[in-house]
Design goal:
The complex is a heterodimer. In chain A, about 0% of the residues lie in helices and about 55% in strands. Chain A is built from no helices and ten strands. By secondary structure, chain B is mainly beta. Chain B is built from no helices and eleven strands. In chain B, β7 and β8 form a beta hairpin. The radius of gyration of chain B is 13 Å and the shape is globular. Chain B starts with a strand and ends with a strand. The chains are: A mainly beta, B mainly beta.
């Protein structure tokens, strides 16, 4: 399968804590993207990391990529209630097709 | 610059009817992708189109489903003779290029309910 698999399926934390979610994939990729989906809405792109990059930051987001382990992680620091959403990873292959996993549902408790 | 637009936002059909879902990509984007999301599940890739061409339809059921992206006008996802199992949210996304380094911009989705 070419889709990413996120872990854990659900995560509940207190506001201010850090949230870490992981993504594993099976075949070689060109890049990997993370998206967020608020309940009932479309996906919003968060960050893209290329296969030759190991770490990338964007605001409170930090993404790592380990191609030897075929895994990526998304860290959200100092979480806020507004971060409550589902987070999806999408391994990117040639042709720009992305295969999303089932996501990690994050709940940040105020 | 308006984002990706989808209409209708909600669509109710009875079994056996046809559903037509429309997607207008962002201005300047010529690549469109359709995804289906069942309740409590992730997005499943259905089809990837470039203007007037289907590039990859490997995720689309062979029967009853078709997609097009004409030279003029929106992309259309058409489901014939809908069944209850077709009830889902259908999202389209667009990107300016078809290489593997472009983010996809998603529309708000069309929620199809089959009675």
């Amino acid at each position: 399968s070419q889709q990413g698999e996120e872990d854990p399926q659900a995560l509940s934390i207190q506001e201010g804590e850090n949230a870490t979610m992981n993504c594993s994939y099976k075949t070689s990729i060109n890049n990997l993207q993370w998206y967020r989906q608020n309940s009932g809405r479309g996906l919003v792109h968060l960050i893209l990391i290329r296969s030759n990059e190991r770490e990338k930051h964007s605001g409170r987001l930090r993404v790592t990529l380990d191609t030897s382990k075929k895994s990526s992680s998304l860290l959200i620091t100092a979480s806020r209630a507004a971060d409550t959403a589902s987070y999806f990873c999408a391994p990117g292959y040639t042709g720009n097709q992305f295969y999303f996993g089932t996501g990690t549902s994050l709940t940040v408790i105020p | 610059n308006a984002g990706v637009m989808q209409n209708p936002r909600h669509l109710v059909r009875r079994r056996g009817q046809e559903a037509r879902l429309r997607c207008s990509p962002m201005k300047g984007h010529s690549h469109v992708y359709w995804y289906r999301q069942l309740p409590e599940e992730g997005l499943k890739f259905m089809v990837y189109l470039q203007k007037e061409n289907i590039i990859d339809e490997s995720g689309m059921p062979k029967e009853r489903f078709s997609a097009e992206f004409p030279k003029e006008g929106p992309s259309i996802l058409r489901i014939q003779q809908v069944v209850r199992g077709d009830s889902a949210a259908y999202f389209c996304a667009s990107s300016p290029k078809g290489d593997a380094y472009n983010e996809q911009f998603f529309g708000p989705g069309t929620r199809l309910t089959v009675l």
